[in-house]
Amino acid sequence: MIQRRTAVALLASPLLLSGCGGGAEAAQSRADDGRPAPATASPTPGPQDEGIPGLGPKTRAAIPERAEQVVVASGRGKDSPVSSVVLYERDDSTWQRGASWPAHNGKDGWSEHHIAGDLRSPVGVYGLTDAGGLLADPGSKLPYHHSNGFYSPGTGFEGEPLQGSFDYVVAINYNRAAGTSPLDWTRPLGSARGGGVWLHVDHGGPTHACVSVAKAHMKELLRTLDPHRHPVIVMGYADWLAR
């Protein structure tokens, strides 16, 4: 019954049907359990964070200490839908950099106070705890919800077909209940704050609020992100990340 209700919720949402979830309140960074990260008296980064280039002291301070995998989604500019994604993995006190993948984000760029329908992606630090998709589990280490509810019809902002966009997704823990299916419609901050913000398969154009990469890269992320390593995503435009 839970799976059926969440699938119905997805189909009832024009935001999800058109490519990804709605907006988000992005002024607060979030720990990997979906709650606001605790306030930090000093933004001085620990040595484990110094190996991730492009992240300033405020951004580094928002990364939970136990996180050993960090996906960095760096936007070209505040109002740009073009970005790149890199996965960093910590080996003892050293961060190892993976390949850089081209990506898309929200059509109108990024927001520090994102709300549903503003066509911007939320900046911040968010946990990555749950995955799913229209296609069968490709070997995900995160809990994987295989469901027809991930169907994505229609066309994107540039006329590109959206079919297959939700073949594989990883839920970004903005305004959602961690530990549930990406299709779960729980919105702790309320529906006006948006939700359904995911990493998903790129369809060749901007998203509503999600971050999208090629299908092969989504499969790689699913096979690599490990809940025992407490993965998070750090996302925003380059100048914001460098704070």
Model description:
The protein is an alpha/beta fold and 243 residues long. Helices cover 14% and strands 24% of the residues. The protein contains five helices and twelve strands. The chain has helices spanning 2-11, 14-17, 57-61, 215-224, 238-241, and strands spanning 69-75, 82-91, 94-104, 110-111, 121-122, 124-127, 131-133, 144-146, 169-171, 198-201, 211-213, 232-237. The longest helix is centred in the first third of the chain and has 10 residues, at 2-11. The chain is globular. The N and C termini lie far apart (45 Å). Mean pLDDT is 85; it is low at 1-19 and 22-49.
Strand content: 15-25%
Low-confidence parts, pLDDT < 50 over ≥5 residues? 1-19, 22-49
Series of H and E elements: HHHEEEEEEEEEEEHEH
Mean pLDDT: 85
| Biggest beta sheet attributes | 5 strands, mixed
- Measure the end-to-end span: 45 Å
Helix-residue proportion: 10-25%
Number of contiguous helices: 5
The global form is globular
List the helices and strands and how they pair.
Layout: H1 2-11, H2 14-17, H3 57-61, E1 69-75, E2 82-91, E3 94-104, E4 110-111, E5 121-122, E6 124-127, E7 131-133, E8 144-146, E9 169-171, E10 198-201, E11 211-213, H4 215-224, E12 232-237, H5 238-241
Parallel strand pairs: 1-12, 4-5, 7-8, 10-11
Antiparallel strand pairs: 1-2, 2-3, 6-12, 7-9, 9-10
